[in-house]
Every structure is written in structure tokens, then in C-alpha cells.
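USER: Fancy drafting a protein?

ASSISTANT:
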Amino acid sequence: MGSDKSELVIGEVTVLERIGAILKRNFSHVIINRNNPASVQAVYVKDQYEQHGPLGGLHAVLSETPTQYVFVSACDTPFLKTEIIEFLLSRLTSDIDAVIPVYNGRSQPLSGIYRKELAQRCALLLEKGERKMQSLLNVSTVIYVENFPAIDPEDLYWHFFNMNTGKDYEAALKKIQAE
């Protein structure tokens, strides 16, 4: 989109503020992977492996989290739904490294749950020059969640909605106006 999508304003707040508020309602600890702190009250961590995309960001967060698992959200998904986060959390078991939703046939690793211990595996992949989240998932014990019974299809759509174009941003603005 040519700009920092997390700083786009939706309603009266930035996308980052909106995501932060949703996460704070669901979790006691919020970590944001970002080089410059923003207006959201949270712990901010910088990439240890710069220019390594989402895998580098995940590594930074997993390296700093005090919790056993983290829920990950992309910075351009302003309509996260608590019921979907809770459903994904319910799929966790002690022998699982990650819970990854699949929506419309596509894996959604930037809306998944990851075990803290995966930080070491991330580092090994990053040191080899790997940047893809799927590379981590390929060497981890993962539950892929494709069915979300009793969750409204429209809620699923908006939870996984992200803004990649100006047209997507316009759709987000229209949704906020309708709420």
C-alpha cells in the first residue's frame, strides 16, 4: 500500500491501536514487533534478524515472551474476533508447537498460536537465510484448524480480512461505518 498499514486510521483509532485493544481484552501480556514504539501500551521488541520478514518478527516475539504460547496477529487485520482466538486456543495440547487456522483453503500463519520454544528453531532457519513461516511449520508439530463450527461465516471472513490494497482499506472503512 506504500505506507505503514498499522498506522492507517479506522474509525477513531489506528489499526495497531484497534488490534492492541482486542488483544488486551484476550491476553494479559501483549508484545508488538516493531522498531519504533507506538501509542499502544505494550512491550515492543525489535527484530534480531532484520529484513527477515514475519519469521524474523516471530523469532523476536518468541524470544521475549514470558508465556509458553503466543497468539500472533498481522498488523493489517483490524477485525480480530475473540471467539476465533478462543477456539484456536482450545485446540492447544502439550505436545503441539503451533495451531494454525486455514481459511478458504489457505494457511493463515499470521493468525496462529506458537510455542515459545520455537524461537530456537526460528533462529536456526533464519541463520540459514530462510524467511518463510511455512519453513518453520514444516519442521514443527502443527495442528491445522480448517473447521470452525458454530462461528458465523461473516465473523470468519472479517477475522482473516487483511488490508493489502487501497480497495481493502476502503472496505475496512465501510465496515467500521456500519458497526
Summary: The mean pLDDT is 94. Helices lie at 15-26, 53-64, 82-90, 118-127, 133-138, 153-160, 166-178. The CA atoms of residues 27 and 71 lie 9 Å apart. The two ends are 25 Å apart (CA to CA).
